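Researcher: Before we compare anything, I want clean individual predictions. No alignment, no superposition, just each chain on its own. First chain goes here; please echo the sequence and then give the structure tokens.
Model: Echoing the first chain and its structure:
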Amino acid sequence: MNDEQRDIGKEQPAAAPSVPGDLVKRVSEAISDPERARDLRVALWVEGGAPSERFELSFEATGSGEARARLNDEVKGRGETSRTVELTQSDFSELLRALDVRQLLRAADRSHPIPPDSVIGRLELSDGEQRISTVFMADPEQAKDAGYELPRAVAEAVDRIYELAARELDEKDVRP
């Protein structure tokens, strides 16, 4: 095999991979200029619980103005509801302001043992190239029993998402 054959299919990267600092900068720019938020995506998935006591919530919002929310809560007897709506630039900017990206990075680096049948949440921020994702115990009572405390920055961002999801799903509250 010659050098040319060995190099077939190998492509050089177009650019250096982005680093978390790039995402911090992109979020900051998007807050002050909503047009720069188009590639940003904020998502929250919360699910878990014992069989017949399942809780599932998903919420995803993009800087292009689309938001999707879905809820299925067997504990409170709420059947599955889902909606896709238009999210205003000001709502998305407010959501970005609620995200402390540096604290989200720190929270993503921490881990805590999670007991079986717990309701688990995952908060994710992405710009299409870089992604920050943190996993946490989403049910306050379960978290308290396990000695788990949600980092304040994550709690504030999750609370803002719960508010948006509740509004979009016409629910008073969507917390587990």
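Researcher: Okay. Second chain, same rules.
Model: Second chain and its structure:
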Amino acid sequence: MDEGKNKNLMTNIKSIFGDLKNLHAEECENNLVLTCKEFIQHSEKFLTVLIYEDERDKKNQRWFSSKTFIQRSMSLSLMHELLIHILIDDYKQKYNETSFINKIECFIQNLLVENKKNIEPYLYLIDTNACEKELLEYLDIFI
């Protein structure tokens, strides 16, 4: 079979089956992107709450329940971060380094740095030790 016919045959095979993609990798990629989007949405809401509570604190008008809410929100944020790192590590173990994972990892690193920078002025509102304890308790349940 000459090279032209062979190339044409491969084109026909590709058109029948589509580009051969790893559907499992695509599912992992979609889960990772979805988790990142959830983290971004949560971070935006959490930052809004922190700004609001900062204003209330300056006026000595904080609610008793706000401390618990802030703590739970911070714990959830830490859980999202942990989940994203686990999903990235899992993806790398299964599919090695890909352009997708390299891009998303860079994006996540920048996102986490920005998120920490945004939260930093409001850390006085957050009992980080309690959040870390809550995260460890959560991990104990699933490990």
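Researcher: What stands out in the second chain?
Model: The radius of gyration is 22 Å. Additionally, Residues 9-20 have pLDDT under 50 and may be disordered.
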